[in-house]
Protein: Phosphoenolpyruvate synthase
Organism: Flaviramulus basaltis
Amino acid sequence: MKNLILLFFVCFITNGFSQKISNEQIASQISQYKNDVRGPYKDIRWFCTDGSIRQPKDPCPDNIGPGVQHARYKDDVVALAKNNQIYLGQILAYTDKDEFWDAKNNHSRLKQYQLDKYLRAVDNGWINEKGQFYRGAIQSEDEEAWGIDFYKWLLANDANIEKNYFLIRQSLKDIPHSGDDNLSQLIRSQSKVISDEFLPFMDLRVKIHSQPDFKDISKVKEFKEKFSSKLSKSQTDKVDELIKTMTKFYKPIDIKTLANKTSLFKNTVVAEKINSYILSNSSETQASALIPETAQLIIDIRESLLEVKSPLGRLQLLDISLKLEEIIFKMSPEWEPDNLQGMLTKICYLGMATAGSGYIEMSEWDAISLKSPFPDENNMTLDALTHVLENGRSLVEWSSSMVKANYQNIVDVYTNFEPKTYGFIDDKIRGSVALYLGESVGKLGDFIALESSLTNKVLDIPNQSAFRGLNPGYAFGELVVVDGSPDDIEVDSDKIYIFQRPPADLKPIAGIATVSEGNMVSHVQLLARNLGIPNAALSDANLKSLKKYNSQNVFYAVSNKGNIIIKLEKDMTETERLLFTKKERNEEKIEVPVENILLNETNILNLRSVDASDSGKLCGPKAANLGQLKKMFPEQVVEGLVIPFGIFREHMNLPMPNQTVSYWTFLNTMFKEAEGMRSQGIAEAEVENYQLKELETLRNAIKEMTLNPKFVAQLEKDFTSILGADLGNIPVFLRSDTNMEDLKDFTGAGLNLTLFNVLDKNKIIDGIKDVWASPYTERSFKWRQKYLLNPENVFPSILVIPSVDVDYSGVLITKGISNGNEDDLTVAFSRGAGGAVDGQSAETYLIKIDGGTRFLAPAREQYYNSLPISGGTEKKLATFETSVLNQQNINEIRELAKTIRETLPKETHSDYKGAYDVELGFKNNKLWLFQIRPFVENKKALSSDYLETITPKIDKNKVISLSEKL
């Protein structure tokens, strides 16, 4: 009996420590820790070198070696770490270095340590609100000694620095190792705490967060004097602490003291550069002279870091780099160029400092033409200036995306139980030189907007030059500003959405703007472009400025040149109101052609036996066009099977379970009933709800359908003969391929289901039914209803092809999207399979037909899809120090596009003269082709009379003097 009881307790404890803890429970635990005088800690002990643990008043004796004294975690803190990998109140001296670096989990523990530091700063100690003075819990000298030992271990490995330069450098601001404090973050957190308690401080807080400078000290002092009678004793003390911190931070840095940090790399080239910098600038006070010299040294240090072999010498170099960034951060507001030449020079060196500080990769800095401050030119054309502006905007966007790429995942985890975490990324960006780079680029944007008459008119918000149009169109509706994740937002087709990033499965909406545009050739972007939905990019600050207009009705337009208008309903002109007068929309819709469809073909087809002429007849355009590509590029297209429309239609004639009719009759009855409801004047929303409920019933029934045994037998036979292995022995893609895709005026990109890398035989068979059901999902149906006259006549075929575990994949558009040039190419690639198509932040190029390339954006996704031979997908971790595409890949893509343009129209006997949208990938530098379709743009949006009226005529060759006053 005793053994049974013991077994019960062992099982109880084991299960208790293995069950994941809910976000609600974690939030409750945090609340408890805040009110506990020991916070997340249980007690204090001595930890001796021999592994023994002793009472706090019984230190480790000399004969068993020295020890360290610190707290132990509460049992539920230990359980949270074990079950959820959430590490609260980490004590460094208590932590294994390798476990803290946590490379296998994308450095989660280190990032959580940084989050913890931030939350304690902005929330009065956070989990240590009452326990922050728990004496002996953490010994600062032990933490600092651990930090030095940690960096000695970490920086000994060159690969760590090459792959994680940004993260390592950022961690130095939080991990104690030299006695330095992260004062700039402390200023922001102290000002936030004051404004949260005393609302009149909010304006000053906004100033300190967005445009900080040393003059803020006097403004805070004036504020304290003005509100002295209204501030409590506690609030007054906090204002005094802020003044003290600001005074310490803005105390001039003695440049001569940098020499103290060069002891471990004295006889190196970089040491000579540092000593030369000290000699030349120790008495320099002019920001316009000191910032260029400092920026150059920051980038020199980054480029020289691996030449210093001592890990602690590398640590000294990184500490110098941080001090140099601090100099630029403090002095940037003092550099106020009065002419265009000065502004271009400032942007150049702030960009250089941004690269040296790790906010972009060196390959990205080398690819962008901001490196010259244009000292020998007296004039520039408006076109050349605009190119500089675009590069400057890119640097700002890439810097923000570097912070997000490194921290967004763990911030999302913490935000679920601690909402204050959401400000962490914004705080990181505002504490960087990129803040002032963005401000300077904004001023250049304002200047160029006036010179080109390309001025945005976005309500009354500041920094409007950060807006840029991605594709033209206009919309009217409620403005919805989403500051968090968009994935759980239920969108409405009549509303205009402002997102941090575009959701992967976007349902129909009226208009969209995003901080992170993903990439210009993702399914979301292509659908928006196809349907004439106005689409723009904006900055983080722009999004926050728009939040006060959330839920208000606005007019939103993006012109053909990318300038943007957003205005309240009451400010709309009569012309703008007339754009939305109710009218019969059928003439704007198109009809799915069904007159040539061949539903009597009920045999599985070999991909080699179909070509472009079969599109819309036997199968959809994916299979037809891939079959065409197989004929043209036999070595670069996989083998495949095609399940034609006729097999789907044959199965739809089967009796539907729990109904008295077939699947097909059920579907058509639903559409007839819906038309009857409309004729009776029933509201469209009610009609749509009826249809969606019926479609859900149909969809679930299709998924449970029993497939025809004859079809299954043929599938097994043809799978083996065509793909060379038995069904269930090699993983395949199942791609939905409907007759509604790639119509003349409608792309349908990404609306229906693709199943990735399916291996198991039963999962393939079930997957066929899932793909057949996917055109009846809410998202797919709503897009069809918006555009098609006969949505009931949608037939899915299925393309079955073996998986290729590509190293990287993406999209080629045989047109320059960013410049409108029909001869150029646009390419977006991400690591692994499917990322660029799904809207990941992808490496993007404009490939010039004459042989040049222009780098438009880097890849900024830390996780990518790998396709293992065992089926399914695996998430792998990426770093950004090397580009995705190499020059050989780019040359092959250029040749491929040339061949497609010249050969495809002849091979298909087509008079199509537009651009193509091609999905492709590389495995071991071999190019594989997966899809080709026409690139469909919304001609109505591009040619709209109204959009033409708001599109200024720009003289790109206009010459502007660089001595022009700003």
User: Anything to note?
Assistant: The chain has six domains: 2-180, 250-336, 338-453, 457-576, 599-803, 804-939. Residues 1-17, 583-587 have pLDDT under 50 and may be disordered. The CA atoms of residues 342 and 685 lie 57 Å apart. Residues 2-180 form one domain.
